[in-house]
Amino acid sequence: MAQSRLQSVVDHLRGATGATSSGLAKLQVKNPDDVVVTAAFRTPLCKARKGGYKDTSSDELLLELFKAAKANIGIDAGIVGDICVGTVLTANAPYSARAAALTAGFPDNVPVQIINRFCSSGLMAVSTIANQIRNGEIEVGLAIGYEHMTANSDKGSAPLADEMMAHPVAKDCIQPMGWTSENVAADFQISRERMDEVAAMSHQRAEKAQNEGIFSSEIVPVQAVAKDANGNKQRVTISQDDGIRKGTTKDALGRIRSAFPQWKPSNTTGGNASQITDGGAFVLLMTRRKAEELGVPILAKHVATSVSGLAPRIMGIGPTYAIPAVLKRTGLSIEEVDLFEINEAFASMYVYCLEKLKLDPSKVNVNGGAIALGHPLGATGARQVATGLNALKRRNGKVLVTSMCIGLGMGAAAVFIAE
């Protein structure tokens, strides 16, 4: 029944004749109270336990992210009304984030909060700041997404209460994410060949973007700790992603063994799933009125964010609920969206989202996604904003939709309108 409701929403958005809506014209009207993005950047994304941040502590990387934010937001840090940090696994996150902000030079009058909605945490940070601005609580706010998975690995849930484990749906909340990927592949007949095909495309697009210097517009270099052969520490500059597998082909991915042979159809591999990664991103938002007063460039307007729930066992298809929901709220049709950034948690869910929503692959993850770049859990939602707006500007597009599935059975999506 949920699937039929979803399809009716999608059909409604497209219209019976395929005509587009007039929502875009309305959203392009400028208002002094608009919530606008004036800066959106990310750190390089590096392989957890193997890449550029493997010798850097979680606190050290978070501090570098705050330093990069302060140096690149283009305003006096003292006028930031609030900072919201989205992170999932970070130990002592409230302590680390507040201390990092102060150490980086944000004055003590700037408060800090933490938000955790698993893979959407970075987007939830953006949405939280946007809503605070809309409510008149603050004029300027900073959203940060962050994860250092080298130091903070995902060990899953502790045992739940007996009554929860006896519930037919609730018990699935503690199941591994790989299990949910195989459920999607099985339930919706997603083949291994198709999964490897989109995974190869992700790497090929990311490699091309890196070679052409496209990511340099969204990446801010950061300092990391590196140990030499004798174990001595030194500081090094990290300036590019290190998880992109150059020369990746579908045939090569097809030779990788299943990561989860215990669950059928066992189509998920280390080559067609998102990488375990370290990194962060930040997005500065404010009212249009304040941006014009400060004379800072406006990149885009944040229009809306929507979150949807679904069965935890197929959590990966969350974007197929959240994207239609946010489009319906904003009056946009799928055809009016110039670019989509949909998190590639697993190739199975990514294929399903492309096919269920009938998306044009040439408009989705045009510079690669999490299969190539990695998925630092709390960072992804903010990273997609930086990556998406950079790609949108290069293509002279107007509408960006970012989206991701969320562990425990949810999906989130947001709409941004470029200036």
Explained architecture:
- Helices cover 35% and strands 20% of the residues.
- The N terminus is likely disordered.
- With 419 residues, the chain is of the alpha+beta class.
- The strands form two sheets. Strands 1, 2, 3, 4, 5, 8, 9, 10, 11 and 12 form a ten-stranded mixed sheet that branches. A two-stranded antiparallel sheet has the order 6-7.
- α7 packs across α12.
Name the poorly predicted regions.
1-21
Termini separation: 39 Å
Beta content: 15-25%
The H/E string reads HHEEHEHEHEHHHEEHEHEHEHHHEE
Major pleated sheet:
10 strands, mixed
* Average of the residue pLDDT scores: 94
The gross shape turns out to be: globular
Number of strands: 12
The helix fraction, in percent, is 25-40%
Rg from Cα: 20 Å
Give the structural class.
Answer: alpha+beta
How many helical stretches?
14
